[in-house]
Amino acid sequence: MSLTDHDTTDGLQEFEESCRKHNVPGLPGIELSAEYYDDVHILGYGMFYTSPEFQEKLTALRKLRDERNEKMCAKLKTLGYDISIEEVIRESEGDVIARPHIARVLMKKGYVSSLKEAFDRLIGKGALAYVPRKTLSPEECIALIQNAGGISVLAHPGEIYLDSEPFDILLRKLKDAGLWGLECYSSHHSAEEIFGFLKLAAKFGLNPTAGSDFHGENRPDVEMGIDVPEHIIPGKLTFLAFKKLDNSGGVSVNVHSSFAYKTD
Questions:
Q1: Residue 223: pLDDT band by 50, 70, 90 thresholds?
Q2: pTM for the whole structure
Q3: CATH architecture assigned to 2-58+135-262
Q4: 62-123 has which CATH code?
Q5: What's the pLDDT tens digit per position in 157-213?
Q6: Per mean pLDDT, which of 42-51, 180-189, 254-263 is the most reliable?
Q7: In the record, what terms sit under GO molecular function (predicted)?
Q8: pLDDT digits over 56-65, tens only?
Q9: What is the domain partition of the chain in residue ranges?
Q10: Which terminus of the chain is less hemmed in, N or C, by CB atoms within 10 Å?
């Protein structure tokens, strides 16, 4: 399994310690936000997340995220919603501050009845208080992960709203930039979509992976872990382990994992 939080490696040390304690194969990860006509998320697995260069870039990304949150709170204030960034910071309880924290403050103050309403009416893309985010390009995300010794995977492609031809162009661009895998199995995908993404992974020479996209209480309808076929096995802790698995001859096991790696 892997922990892949948005634009942060907070919690990875505790995650790895817990995996060792319970003898569970664990892989350090991250989910980087990018923009390509639509929101695109690039997963990173097995990188040396404590490297100064990697952390320096994450710090810069967090600063951009914080500035965006402050602007959204200011817009909400202008619209008549009594909400401050200080309240949102308290709501985050030390986590990376994100729109769900703003939504929960709005709920607690009675302005909305649900997280969905907060996003639909106020802070979702195109809504009244929405502020576009400044992010890396997908290619920059891939390079950042590779430079830290990790591998990159395009997350939940079913959430990328592109027609088939432009989506193929995106996959080709990312493959050329070093993309390693495509998250074919996801809680976001129907059986038909999974089949289609498996075909695309084969077409572009990408490794199919799996992820539940579990977000805790922010998405209570999504459970941790996802069922995958027997030819998918969990990832290992290091990039070297991926290389070894690639030449292992195709071990087959049943798994219920948040990350998976395909062997031949």
A1: low
A2: 0.74
A3: Alpha-Beta Barrel (3.20)
A4: 1.10.150.650
A5: 887 878 889 999 999 999 999 999 998 887 776 788 888 888 999 999 998 888 766
A6: 42-51
A7: 5'-3' DNA exonuclease activity; 5'-3' RNA exonuclease activity
A8: 999 999 899 8
A9: 2-58+135-262, 62-123
A10: C
